[in-house]
């Protein structure tokens, strides 16, 4: 049985998304999430996208902290995009803009 899992997928010509980053509960807090997320981010960036995005539930504080450290920021969904309850976050390749926090209201 896999201990952690994740995927990347191209969404549009210059966009890539990370999906289903899952760490087995007894392995959480040991750095596997960071290793997985960084590996998937590196794989996505190798395709030359303008942005890399993912969804994260606002009650998933450890994941939110991780994505903040990796440089993801919370942004509004585009009109007509998914109606998910999860927060939409993006890693901007230009990274010249000031970054906000994932999930508004978090410290």
UniProtKB/TrEMBL annotation:
InterPro entries: Acyl_CoA_acyltransferase (IPR016181), GNAT_dom (IPR000182), MshD_Acetyltransferase (IPR050276). Residues 1-94 form the N-acetyltransferase domain. Transmembrane segments: none annotated. Keywords: Acyltransferase, Transferase. GO terms for molecular function: acyltransferase activity. Its EC number is 2.3.1.-. Pfam families: Acetyltransf_1 (PF00583). The keyword Acyltransferase applies. The keyword Calcium does not apply. PANTHER family: L-AMINO ACID N-ACETYLTRANSFERASE, N-ALPHA-ACETYLTRANSFERASE RIMI. This is GNAT family N-acetyltransferase. It comes from Salinisphaera aquimarina. The lineage of its organism: Bacteria, Pseudomonadati, Pseudomonadota, Gammaproteobacteria, Salinisphaerales.
């Amino acid at each position: 049985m896999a201990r952690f899992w994740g995927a990347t997928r191209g969404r549009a010509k210059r966009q890539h998304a990370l999906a289903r980053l899952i760490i087995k509960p007894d392995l959480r807090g040991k750095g596997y999430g960071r290793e997985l997320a960084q590996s998937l981010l590196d794989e996505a960036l190798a395709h030359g996208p303008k942005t890399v995005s993912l969804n994260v539930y606002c009650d998933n504080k450890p994941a939110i902290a991780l994505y903040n450290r990796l440089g993801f920021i919370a942004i509004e969904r585009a009109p007509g995009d998914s109606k998910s309850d999860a927060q939409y976050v993006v890693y901007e390749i230009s990274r010249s803009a000031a970054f906000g926090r994932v999930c508004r209201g978090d410290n």
